[in-house]
Amino acid sequence: MGQQADRATMLDRAAGGGRLTPEEALDLYRFAPLHALGAAADAARRRRYAGVEHIATYIIERNINYTNACVTACKFCAFYAPPKSDKVWTRDLDDILRRCAETVELGGTQIMFQGGHHPDYGVEYYERHFRAIKDAFPQLVIHSLGASEVDHMARISGVSAEEAISRIHAAGLDSFAGAGAELLPARPRQAIAPLKESGERWLEIMETAHRLGVESTSTMLMGTGETNAERIEHLRMIRDSQDRTGGFRAFIPYLYQPQNNHLRGRTQATIFEYLRMLAVARLFLDNVAHIQGSWLTTGKEAGQLSLHYGADDLGSVMLEENVVSSAGAKHRSNRMELLHLIRAAGRVPAQRATTYEHLVVHDDPANDPVDDRVVSHLSSTAIEGGTAHPELTVLNS
Ligand code: SF4
């Protein structure tokens, strides 16, 4: 058999549920024809979601950034400020609770509490905030933080990661957002985030969380100079971890944004590389249920295309976002537009919960929600002039 015939056989096997080796995944990632890769990933998605394969989901959420002070100084990050810098800011609890109230008012179901590694913020800080949020808004799901924050807060408080996770879970954290995965293999991780915990430690903390009943998503930052083999190694590390715990609900690759950071955009992944990664992830990560397409870092057309390359979810209407926007992500959307994008891709949109249950299936456009305040970046410190909607008392800074 020729090499392309071998690849067609591999794609058929993976589409049918057979497991790919990392070597096969790398070969397909590098050489399989793009459309064949997408078709196999789409077949795998349809097989997994037989009966609801016509649906693509989205969520309404808000990122709430509590501080930009950070001791970790990742080279791709445009959000943080060194703790002694005059650019440091923190949000007080009242401010955070008002942002939660706006989220509820707009039909948001989830918040991502997201910030830097503040030198003074230990477990107690997160316990206090999560308790206050849950007391005021028990309906909001706190899907936040990741292994890096756990590693940092545990160190500040002088406790184990296990104790830190148990305590913030008891205080209200529902699930981890899987932030900080970046690139898990040692070489690219050291190159862009030398002060972060190792990839092995990141996975160890996530596995501890999964064993304590706190599930998470997993992410991958593409485009900071990693090799194709390192991208596939990242997937292998996640798949092996998932075989041990089963706690990753989703895999979410996204693209490095080039502005205002130390890397200065010298390397970037292309949209084709991104689509190939989504497709290979759908085929290789046979033990991860959901693959999320990113319109925020790739653009709306690529986000729409992602639904044909293995993604079953198109992320969120993010009422507030500052982190990747600080690095130059300029794409904006709203709920009506996301519904349109999903329909134009031949799928039926459904608003989902954090745990991926369908909350509303938008199967009749005549019944579409009409609240035009549900827009991404309704409030964002990372956009010049902000984008506050006039009808809401939205905080701009
Ligand atoms: S990515 Fe997170 S940990 Fe790294 S510098 Fe930015 S805020 Fe700090």
From TrEMBL:
* Source domain of life: Bacteria
Q: Which cofactor does it need?
A: [4Fe-4S] cluster
MF terms per GO, please? 4 iron, 4 sulfur cluster binding; 7,8-didemethyl-8-hydroxy-5-deazariboflavin synthase activity; iron ion binding; oxidoreductase activity, acting on X-H and Y-H to form an X-Y bond; transferase activity, transferring alkyl or aryl (other than methyl) groups
Could you tell me which residue ranges the Radical SAM core domain spans?
Answer: 56-287
Q: Which GO terms describe its biological process?
A: menaquinone biosynthetic process
Q: Which reaction does it catalyse?
A: dehypoxanthine futalosine + S-adenosyl-L-methionine = cyclic dehypoxanthinylfutalosinate + 5'-deoxyadenosine + L-methionine + H(+)
**What are the transmembrane regions?**
none
Sequence positions that bind S-adenosyl-L-methionine: 76, 182
Q: Where does [4Fe-4S] cluster bind?
A: 70, 74, 77
Q: In what pathway does it function?
A: Quinol/quinone metabolism; menaquinone biosynthesis
Q: Which NCBIfam families match?
A: CofH family radical SAM protein, menaquin_MqnC
* Protein purpose: Radical SAM enzyme that catalyzes the cyclization of dehypoxanthine futalosine (DHFL) into cyclic dehypoxanthine futalosine (CDHFL), a step in the biosynthesis of menaquinone (MK, vitamin K2).
* Protein family membership: Belongs to the radical SAM superfamily. MqnC family.
Classification via HAMAP family:
MqnC (MF_00992)
- Protein name in the entry: Cyclic dehypoxanthine futalosine synthase
Organism source for this protein? Streptomyces hainanensis
The coding gene here is: mqnC
